[in-house]
């Protein structure tokens, strides 16, 4: 089984985004979905591990970053959340998803 970690950086403030709620969902080809895990970023903007329940079998997953809740009440966010959908194609790999975010834009990539 594969594992997942995430890192969120706030490019508006130039610092890690602590307190971002993140959820992981397994997507079924039939259109169904199953919650896998959830966590909140630490002071360094990281979720190093979603715990033992978040081991990923082969398949499709969605990671949802709750950005509106993070930016409120100081800033309004154009994107209330950011969804990253990805494929686990190899067993026993580690998947790392960094997110660089501002109220009006974001970017992500497969990290290491």
Overview of this protein structure:
- The structure is a single chain.
- With 112 residues, the chain is mainly beta.
- It has one domain (3-108): Transthyretin/hydroxyisourate hydrolase domain (Immunoglobulin-like, Sandwich), CATH 2.60.40.180.
- 4% of the residues lie in helices and 48% in strands.
- The protein has one helix spanning 67-71, and strands spanning 3-10, 15-16, 21-27, 33-40, 46-47, 59-65, 82-88, 94-102, 105-108.
- Strands 1, 2, 5, 8 and 9 form a 5-stranded mixed sheet that branches. A 4-stranded antiparallel sheet has the order 4-3-6-7.
- Strand 1 (3-10) and strand 2 form a beta hairpin.
- It is globular, with a radius of gyration of 14 Å.
Topology:
Layout: E1 3-10, E2 15-16, E3 21-27, E4 33-40, E5 46-47, E6 59-65, H1 67-71, E7 82-88, E8 94-102, E9 105-108
Parallel strand pairs: 1-8
Antiparallel strand pairs: 1-2, 1-5, 3-4, 3-6, 6-7, 8-9
